[in-house]
């Protein structure tokens, strides 16, 4: 386990919104994991917003505090700075209380030792001397100081030999990474000093993650007994080794993969058991947002679907209620006439015109959920993608904004491609997609920008996904800008060359928009009452929310009690999602407006804007939770059922309609 530094309890008086002191306890090199979709990162407890951490990301924490309400906050390193996150939205996955110190050596000819940071000089140490250190902190300029036996020394004039994290005790790995580039540098920290180089195909356990100043994600691995960080763009992932088992519990060694891949699934719950058979023994755990290939499916005695996935060097079964099929490869390779088929697509609008060419003459119509093979793709003058489909015994063209591609079946066998992308983005935020091309001899394929395109898969509303033209940024490396104007989507961008699949894709998850996150952050304590009726009611929060997003609220939200507002607001501005007992519509997301249907204690119902949610509770911003109509908007945690009735569903703002970017 990681070793903790010795601790000193101190009372720290915080001025501003806190009148009571905070208790500070120091504990080094513990690890936490984010458990909500998007988590605000602040410069202090309830301080200024500095960024966001995302579900599943893991950070080492060095301090923790309790605020005046008794809630715990944890200090993490974020973009190179010490920042704070609320403990309600993280879980501790590795912790240690050992007092083994770190070691440093002096690199200056003569170094002052002070009684505190920039305090009085109490001693001096010389070049080459080695000391144990038991604490560290930063001064007002951000420089690091270390506490040795004699006092405090400035970090610019010492070299760290070992840290408490570099203990001889084994640390539990989070997972495994495999290098997918020819050579990858290992550094002391994100963009830090060079340690060594690792090479393509090599596999390592990783122990922590950290986001750099440029928002890139880095992973801490161990090489030759020393910890270091590698850039997340150049690795692929698998799960950590399962805990050791007694012989009686050891599952039968599975056979090597022999089954062809049928498609891909994405995990939609926080943690999902993998079993050796349908309802069989546990063999591993996979996590929300992870994507796996599946090779078979089956139904249990209750009629529930299970999927057999490929995981590490074996296969296992997962329950279908907690995954989403995002890609199914059709078995057909060519149509009846022998014409090669690139893939299949489904129509996503009620009626779709079919034309004899891109923006050509109308030749017929196809309808919602109709499935078609397609043979080729093309872009029109505005950059929109069109698909040539099989139609009426021949072919015709349909606009790509109104179809969803469900599979690609033809690949470029003579091209080796590798894709990179961010994994999480705000809705409405532009991000970069990258693909690199080499031939089978390893030579970069240059000048192919106008031949590369993407096929969008998995989007509920493909018209809200935009992808620009590719440009070559270096030899054989191509970039394009993309944007998902839809919240809480998982979109697969499948790369193609000359209309054929490159066998590479990037899966990007969109959260709520940055505007919604900041709105939830900045409106706690605000008295919301746009209509001037009955004081500060829960409905006023929705009015205020809609007005800030869309520039109006009366015609968008409409009148009624809270329980009536699931059906009342405009479909042009809100998606109405009925709550289900399982699956993706069982838990609301950040920015959704939950609606309670009314109960014995409150027949009018209730509503609130969601910050985060689990299977059992919802963290919200709300007003009038006590029925007095006199209090401002406040944060609280609510159950799915209470005196205001059951949560019947939620309104999800259509982020593409947001007018306010301030």
Keywords, separated by commas or semicolons:
single chain, 662 residues, mainly beta, SH3 type barrels, 7 domains, seven-stranded antiparallel beta sheet, six-stranded antiparallel beta sheet, 3 helices, globular, disordered N terminus
Write the layout of secondary structure elements.
Layout: E1 10-12, E2 22-34, E3 38-42, E4 49-54, E5 58-66, E6 72-78, E7 81-86, E8 90-94, E9 102-106, E10 110-114, E11 121-126, E12 130-138, E13 144-148, E14 151-154, E15 158-162, E16 175-179, E17 183-187, E18 194-199, E19 203-211, E20 217-223, E21 226-231, E22 235-239, E23 263-267, E24 271-275, E25 282-287, E26 291-299, E27 305-311, E28 314-319, E29 323-328, E30 343-347, E31 351-355, E32 362-367, E33 371-379, E34 385-391, E35 394-399, E36 403-408, E37 415-421, E38 424-427, E39 430-439, E40 452-457, E41 465-467, E42 471-474, E43 477-484, E44 489-497, E45 500-513, H1 514-522, H2 538-550, H3 554-557, E46 574-578, E47 593-596, E48 606-613, E49 617-622, E50 634-639, E51 641-642, E52 645-653
Parallel strand pairs: 38-45
Antiparallel strand pairs: 1-2, 2-5, 2-8, 3-4, 5-6, 6-7, 9-12, 9-15, 10-11, 12-13, 13-14, 16-19, 16-22, 17-18, 19-20, 20-21, 23-26, 23-29, 24-25, 26-27, 27-28, 30-33, 30-36, 31-32, 33-34, 34-35, 37-39, 39-43, 40-44, 41-43, 42-43, 44-45, 46-52, 47-48, 47-52, 48-49, 49-50, 51-52
């Amino acid at each position: 386990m990681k070793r903790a530094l010795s601790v000193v309890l101190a009372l720290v008086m915080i001025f501003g919104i806190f009148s009571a002191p905070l208790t500070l306890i120091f504990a080094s090199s513990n690890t936490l994991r984010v458990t909500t979709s998007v988590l605000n990162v602040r410069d202090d407890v309830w301080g200024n917003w500095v960024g966001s951490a995302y579900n599943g990301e893991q950070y080492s924490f060095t301090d923790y505090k309790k605020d005046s309400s008794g809630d715990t906050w944890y200090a993490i390193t974020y973009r190179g700075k010490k920042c704070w996150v609320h403990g309600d939205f993280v879980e501790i996955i590795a912790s240690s209380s050992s007092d083994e110190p770190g070691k440093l050596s002096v690199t200056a000819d003569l170094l002052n030792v002070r009684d505190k940071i920039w305090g009085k000089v109490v001693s001096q140490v010389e070049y080459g001397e080695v000391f144990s250190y038991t604490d560290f902190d930063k001064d007002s300029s951000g420089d690091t100081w270390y506490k040795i036996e004699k006092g405090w020394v400035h970090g610019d004039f010492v070299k760290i030999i070992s840290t408490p994290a570099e203990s001889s005790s084994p640390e539990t790995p989070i997972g495994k990474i495999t290098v997918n580039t020819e050579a990858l540098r290992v550094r002391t920290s994100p963009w830090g000093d060079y340690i060594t180089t690792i090479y393509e195909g090599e596999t390592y356990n990783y122990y922590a993650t950290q986001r750099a100043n440029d928002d890139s994600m880095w992973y801490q691995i161990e090489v030759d007994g020393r910890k270091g960080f590698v850039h997340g763009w150049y690795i692929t992932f698998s799960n950590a080794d399962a805990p050791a088992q007694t012989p009686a519990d050891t599952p039968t060694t599975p056979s090597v993969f022999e089954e062809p891949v049928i498609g891909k699934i994405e995990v939609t719950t926080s943690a999902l058991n993998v079993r050796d058979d349908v309802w069989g023994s546990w063999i591993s755990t996979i996590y929300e947002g992870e994507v796996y290939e599946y090779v078979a499916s089956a139904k249990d005695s209750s009629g529930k679907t299970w999927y057999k996935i490929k995981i590490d060097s074996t296969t296992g079964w997962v329950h279908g209620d907690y995954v989403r099929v995002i890609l199914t490869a059709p078995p057909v390779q060519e149509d009846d006439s022998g014409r090669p088929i690139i893939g299949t697509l489904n129509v996503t609008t009620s009626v779709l015109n079919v034309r004899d060419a891109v923006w050509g003459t109308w030749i017929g119509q196809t309808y919602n959920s109709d499935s078609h093979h397609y043979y080729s793709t093309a872009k029109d003058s505005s950059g929109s993608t069109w698909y040539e489909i099989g139609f009426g015994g021949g072919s015709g063209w349909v606009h790509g904004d109104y179809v969803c591609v469900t599979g690609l079946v033809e690949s470029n066998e003579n091209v080796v491609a590798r894709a990179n992308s961010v994994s999480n983005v705000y809705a409405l935020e532009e991000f970069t997609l990258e693909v690199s091309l080499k031939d089978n001899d390893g030579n970069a394929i240059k000048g192919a920008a106008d031949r590369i395109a993407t096929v969008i898969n998995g989007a509920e509303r493909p018209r809200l996904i935009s992808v620009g033209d590719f440009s070559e940024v270096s030899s054989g490396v191509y970039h394009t800008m993309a944007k998902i104007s839809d919240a809480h989507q998982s979109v697969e961008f499948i790369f193609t060359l000359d209309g054929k699949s490159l066998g590479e894709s990037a899966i990007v998850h969109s959260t709520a928009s940055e505007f919604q996150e900041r709105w939830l952050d900045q409106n706690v304590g605000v008295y919301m009452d746009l209509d001037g009726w009955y004081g500060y009611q829960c409905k006023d929060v929705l009015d205020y929310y809609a007005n800030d997003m869309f520039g109006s609220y009366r015609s968008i939200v409409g009148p009624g009690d809270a329980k009536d507002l699931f059906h009342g607001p405009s479909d042009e501005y809100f998606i109405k999602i009925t709550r289900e007992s399982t699956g993706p519509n069982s838990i609301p997301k950040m920015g959704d407006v939950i609606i309670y249907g009314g109960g014995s204690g409150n027949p009018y119902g209730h509503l609130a804007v969601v910050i985060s949610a689990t299977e059992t509770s919802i963290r919200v911003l709300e007003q009038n939770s006590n029925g007095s109509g006199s209090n401002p908007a406040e944060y609280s945690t609510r159950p799915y059922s209470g005196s205001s009735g059951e949560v019947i569903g939620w309104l999800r703002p259509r982020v593409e309609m947001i007018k306010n970017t301030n």
